[in-house]
Specification:
The complex is a heterodimer of chains A (406) and B (354). Chain A is α/β, with parallel strands linked by helices. Chain A is built from 17 helices and nine strands. In chain A, strand 1, helix 5 and strand 2 form a beta-alpha-beta unit. The chains are: A alpha/beta (406), B alpha+beta (354).
Chain lengths: 406, 354
């Protein structure tokens, strides 16, 4: 039987996440010590070699991202993306609440690699209690001397989903409207306050101490080859065990649902599973024998994303679910670019029409055209990904739409 | 260093750092834009200028994408055309389609691009927003039911005028242009320069003073220099039946070297005096408490006689000259010359000193 494999959460509930001393007892801050004994270039190479890829959703090689940061500017920033706005995702909160010091250590390791002593954690506004805890953890780590010269400040979001997009997050820290910037320039070159900035997810940073302590090869040997390591997943929806798990990345989606998750709630049949948050594709039961890693998920037209796993049983109405999702994106579009600002609104209108039995085949045709243009022409990932639930359900569950038409 | 790329089958060379939009235009491609403005910071948000780089999954907004060596670009691929049509239809769905009475009829990007791509109506249903702003100011009409949210007005207000009177308010579909707390322009830092009207690509922002007097696209344009001050801004007079019916901006630096089209409230809106029946057309001389028309010779002779009389009786320092910022440096020079050389007094002053 497939098992959990805990790295980040190995000492969950056994140590006080606020206490640097507790963390040191279980081997903490060794990674930072090792990192600081290396020159920044070698450190970046080591992280590259580990194959660590972004855990926030985009899956970009972390070491590669760091290597884009130019050495010459004096001021650079390490920003932790803790916006965690994907509905059904709470793995970053769990990592912080169980192992906050690993996050701080990871940020300091990155700081050494890019030559920065300025860290920011951008925490979603709905987690004020985690912010308090993080501030204590930072204070404790600073006092203990573990972080050395590296400083970390916590900033809070105000509830905008799009502020999980790294450039919108940067705008938000700067005090502006949370709107994504066009890229290039990428944050690595021009980020926070227009200075070079690395933005990584909580989970990505939290992997770093273990990579440094145990070596890049150790990490590269865990899970899927092209997306190694572990992944913290959060299960929601019609599932017996709606909780979080840490698994190696070659873990099968079927096992997530039926082994760790204990199967569909009430012994019902599985209708669909949505992985990676609200913008993820709906995966039909015939595709769940797929490893959860980034590339395997992409290969079936889905996305690992943030690692949220939303299970829907046979009684669920797909069109009604998509209608709610369309409403969500209409609400969360920042309003900057035309395809997303207007498109998410029209998607919602058309979905409402179909869901209330007033739709026609023409509406489905329009939905497809709109989805295509939003994916191809929107400014940021939000507009590009917002139609994915629609297109994936039109692909796998078209009959659910057709039966609601006029 | 120059880079090479192929645009619509044509190979061109551009300097490194050139944006695709400029490269495409250099190659002769006609790229439609709403939010792009060469004098403002880039926004990349209207997505009208999207083009297809060969081998890329998505389209790119050419105004904010740097050209890369070896790129192969199609500016009218089926995907590009579909995206532009859908963007136009999305704009049309929320647009108050009153072109027949619109001041911008004939000079409107939305009209032009819909014509170009044959977009007669939108496939999407929906209502307009009802965002018309009944703003009591006498100068600027704000009809946001015609707005395409390009934010050029916001950027012009900040970057050209520096007033920062307006910005985007609310989010997503409900995003719209507003002053702080969505109040009236009069209660904002707005200085009514009308730079927002100058950059608006559609009919959302128009002049109340010129409204109904003639659509700018149909008016004869006469370039002249503003007489309100010594800055010497170029004005583009809109002339219809030999009457001035409006002022618009000529933004070409060659024709408008001083201001590149930017104006102040007086230059843009203060021209209606020209045809006023109350305007003086001859000098007037007051006799027995009443003004009567006079010739210039008669009036100047009278003035010279009185000035000389005062000078003889009380001395040159009993006279002083008060000059105006509305005249040029050269004219001000002549004014002080008249005072010092002809009258013999240093009593010269100027309204701009107050």
């Amino acid at each position: 039987m497939a098992q959990e494999y805990r790295v980040l959460l190995e000492h969950a509930d056994k140590i006080n996440p606020e206490s640097a001393a507790d963390y040191v007892k279980v081997g903490g801050y060794k990674g930072l010590e090792k990192a600081r004994s290396m020159n920044p270039k070698d450190l970046t190479e080591e992280v590259k070699k580990s194959g660590l890829r972004g855990r926030g959703g985009a899956g970009f090689n972390a070491g590669m991202k760091w290597s884009f940061v130019p050495q010459y500017p004096e001021t650079k920033y390490v920003v932790c993306n803790f916006d965690e706005g994907e509905p059904g995702t709470y793995k970053d909160r769990i990592i912080c609440q169980k192992n906050a010091q690993a996050l701080l250590e990871g940020m300091a390791i990155c700081g050494h690699a890019i030559g920065s002593n300025n860290g920011y954690i951008y925490c979603r506004g709905e987690y004020p209690f985690v912010v308090e805890m993080l501030k204590k953890a930072i204070g404790n780590a600073k006092e203990s001397g573990a972080l050395g010269e590296f400083n970390i400040e916590v900033r809070m979001g105000a509830g905008a989903y799009v502020c999980g997009e790294e450039t919108a997050l940067i705008e938000s820290i700067e005090g502006h409207r949370g709107e994504p910037r066009f890229k290039p320039p990428f944050p690595g070159v021009e980020g926070l306050w227009r200075m070079p900035t690395v933005v990584n997810n909580v989970e990505t940073f939290a992997c770093l101490p273990y990579i440094l302590t145990n070596g890049a090869d150790w990490f590269a040997g865990i899970g899927a080859k092209s997306y190694p390591g572990t992944k913290v997943l959060t299960l929601t929806g019609d599932i017996e065990n709606p909780t979080y798990f840490e698994v190696p990345t070659d873990y099968l989606l079927r096992d997530v649902i039926y082994e760790l998750g204990g199967g569909v709630k009430g012994g019902k049949k599985l209708k669909a599973v949505q992985v990676g948050g609200t913008s993820g594709a709906f995966i039909p039961p015939q595709n769940i024998d797929t490893p959860i890693d980034f590339d395997s998920m992409s290969a079936i037209g889905a996305a690992l994303g943030s690692g949220a796993v939303f299970v829907m049983d046979e009684s669920r109405d797909i069109v009604d679910t998509i209608n709610r999702i369309a409403k969500f994106f209409e609400h969360e579009s920042c309003g900057q670019c035309t395809p997303c600002r207007e498109g998410t609104h029209r998607c919602k209108e058309i979905m409402e029409k179909i869901n209330t039995g007033r739709g026609t085949l023409k509406d489905i045709e329009n939905l497809k055209v709109l989805a295509r243009v939003m994916q191809k022409a929107s400014l940021c990932g939000l507009g590009q990904a917002a139609p994915i639930p629609i297109t994936s359900t039109l692909e796998h569950f078209e009959y659910e739409y057709l039966r609601k038409l006029m | 260093m120059d880079i090479k790329l192929t645009i619509n089958g044509k190979e061109i060379e551009v300097p490194q750092g050139t944006m695709l939009l400029d490269a495409c235009r250099k190659a002769g491609a006609d790229i439609p834009t709403f939010c792009y403005d060469p004098d403002l910071k880039l926004a990349g948000s209207c997505r009208m200028c999207v083009v297809q780089p060969q081998g890329w999954r998505n389209l790119v907004a050419s105004c904010v994408t740097p050209a890369q060596n070896g790129m192969v670009i199609d500016t009218e691929s089926p995907d590009v055309v579909e995206a532009r049509k859908v963007v136009l239809e999305l704009m049309l769905t929320r647009h108050k389609l009153t072109c027949h009475t619109c001041e911008k009829d004939g000079d409107c990007n939305l009209q032009d691009y819909c014509y170009r791509y044959g977009v007669t109506e939108s496939r999407f249903e929906g209502k307009i927003h009802n965002l018309f702003k009944d703003d009591s100011n006498p100068f600027i009409e704000r009809d946001y039911d015609k707005c395409v949210m390009c934010t050029r007005c916001v950027r012009a207000c900040e970057e050209i005028t520096g007033a920062r009177a307006i910005n985007v308010m609310d989010r997503g579909y409900h995003a719209h242009i507003a002053t702080a707390f969505d109040g009236e322009l009069e209660d904002s830092p707005c200085v009514f320069c009308g730079q927002c009207i100058m950059v608006c690509p559609v009919g959302a922002l128009t002049s109340k003073i010129a409204a109904g007097k003639g659509k700018p696209a149909q008016n004869e344009k006469v370039l002249t220099t503003c007489t309100y001050c010594g800055t010497g801004c170029t004005l583009e007079l809109n002339v219809k039946n030999d009457e001035i019916v409006g002022v618009t901006s000529n933004r070409d630096a060659e024709w408008s070297p001083v201001n590149k089209g930017a104006l102040c409230v007086k230059g843009r809106f203060g021209w209606d005096f020209v045809n006023s029946p109350e305007r003086l057309t001859t000098p007037l001389i007051k006799e027995n408490g009443e003004f009567r028309p006079a010739s210039w010779d008669e009036a100047l002779d009278l003035a010279a006689e009185k000035i000389n009389g005062i000078k003889e009786k009380y001395g040159p320092d009993s006279l002083s000259m008060f000059s105006s910022a509305r005249v040029t440096n050269e004219e001000n020079y002549l004014a002080q010359k008249l005072m010092r050389a002809a009258i013999g007094s240093n009593n010269v002053d100027h309204c701009a000193r107050l």
